[in-house]
Amino acid sequence: MEKTMLSIQKKRRQRRRSLMGWAFIAPAVICFVLFLLLPAVMAVGMSFTSYNVFTPAKFVGFGNYVRAFQDTYFLKALGNICLYVVMYVPAVVILSFLLAVLLNTKLRSVKIFRVLFYLPCITSTVASAIVWRWLMNPTSGLLNTILTSLGLPPGTWLNDSHTALVSIVIICVWSTLASNIMIYLAALQNVPESVYESARLDGAGPFRQMMQITLPLVAPTTFFVLTMSLIGSFQVFDQIYVLTSGGPAHATTVPMYQIYMNAFRESQMGYACAQAMLLFGMILIVTLAQQKLNKESLV
Known about the structure:
There is one protein chain. By secondary structure, this protein is mainly α. The chain contains 13 helices and no strands. Helix 5 packs parallel to helix 11, helix 10 packs antiparallel against helix 13 (about 270-299) and helix 12 packs antiparallel against helix 13 (about 270-299). The longest helix is centred in the first third of the chain and has 45 residues, at about 1-45. The protein starts with a helix and ends with a helix.
């Protein structure tokens, strides 16, 4: 009888703990369903309609998707985002790793540099973009002032279709380096110092230690940073909106900006949702391919 009572009390405690756990995660689950899952499901449905906010939605099947592949501006945006990814992802991954290695040293003032490098991460994207627009002003910008003082030709930066996308890449790399550096720093500080001491005793120099010890041991972190950078690069929008508005000559038009314009400027919600689904498909394919290549490299 006593064992039965103890078993009942134990089950009650477990049930109470389970209910308490669900109560704690309930707000997060509700927010996820209301603000992420439900809008995503609605967007999938609206992508097959001609919904334009002002008139009732009409089912058009795959008409919006066919239109997207015939839209020269959207195809231009897809080409721009592919070029942006090719420039942005390697730059941000390599630079964040190298800077994290430098900031992982035991110099006395290294903590000050860590704080300075982290400042862009806590700065508003819009505010920093406005500052960069002033820095890259072709007539009175600080960058051109420095170049002319050194006897070098000034750059056109954001005002030239040949350099605008490269300028956007530079700005985006600067603004996202901080978070990746912190992730790499955490991984580097978990590498045992004894491994480096053994390598030094065997005559390995700093470069050999980095290539044969540091890189392999932080490979999972590199995979995470690479994946997040790939996903984030396809979703670039803030800098484009503030700095160039897709120009000049659509040189910096990207899918996210096209989706915004069609949804909120042209009120073509159905078409914008179809473009969003195509962008989601691109991100999914690239991410899965990258994961497969990573698994093959580890085999």
